[in-house]
Amino acid sequence: MNTASDKSAHLRSRRAALRMLSAALAVPAGLAGCGPAAGNHHTWGHVFGTTVSITIHGASTQRAQELGAAVLAEFDRLHHKFHAWQPGMLTELNQRIARGLPLRTDAEMAGLLQSAARLAERSDHLFNPAIGHLLRLWGFQGGGPRAAPDRAELRHWVAANPRMSDLRFHDTAISSVNPAVRLDLGGYAKGYALDRAAAILRAARVEAALVNIGGNVLAIGQPGGRPWQVGIRNPRAPAAAGNTLCTIPLFDNEAIGTSGDYERFVLEGGLRRPHIIDPRTGMPALGTASVTVLASGGADAGLRSDGNSKPLFIAGALKWENMAGRLDLPQALLVEGEGGMAMTSAMRRRVSGLA
What we know:
By secondary structure, the protein is of the alpha+beta class. The chain has helices at 4-24, 61-81, 89-98, 107-122, 132-137, 151-160, 189-203, 301-307, 309-326, 345-350; strands spanning 40-47, 50-57, 103-104, 167-170, 173-176, 208-213, 216-220, 228-233, 244-250, 254-260, 265-268, 271-274, 277-278, 283-284, 288-296, 332-336, 341-343.
């Protein structure tokens, strides 16, 4: 059996190796989601609290604008339906759960929550959209200030142990056996929105398209017969500067999802505490700067790329590979808070910029 000093030495050695790999992977800056410029038409919007873009290749300007508008309209619908604190179906469901009452929703809501419950179970509940009360305490719900909450309140909601497995489904009627459940799909709905966008664009028979929701990206087709080139952000580079850590080609029906600590966080005692909460402690997960997951195939590539990045982020540098194996994620990349990088062998074969 390894001693504590053996484990400590191993960890120091591993971190040093990761820092060397990170330096080797530094590449010139590039635009996330870039592709061949000729024949590309761009539509921009702001939804889900972030910037979204739809790039359509091989269509007329008018057709591309019409399709971009259709995708943005769908995003707006989903934004209101799945919003965690503004009035909509999800907030109504949370109100009913708090009162111990069911709500008849619809097939879309029930299906998405059942999908989230399956991922929660597979990830040993590190992915847990039921912890909305903890997110609220940290200030990650609503437009108010973000500040470290009272630790006694955190302990209260951790002890209440809200889980997706507390939900009960009777056709489209949803209830919970635990009134402490407060659903927040902020780590899942963007991936679903990518898949809905793909369905709209495929039905319109677009040649190629790239949909980007705040760094969650899905590809359709190949512009000019070449894959889309997508930049993975360096989580420690200023947003205004060249901040591409490396690039990865995306082929038809592939999606990447990135979870990072650099956009929504609380500073406490000099520590950056991100919005990704460890349900076991009620505390933001520390030690990870970002996780990128690549998913391919099926009608839910966007959903899988979005949701699966969270349990890997929480698992951290020592356990993320085991979690990736558990979730059947052959292509994933993790950047440590100190700047080190590690990736699966399949992801290493995909990224460009390796020394």
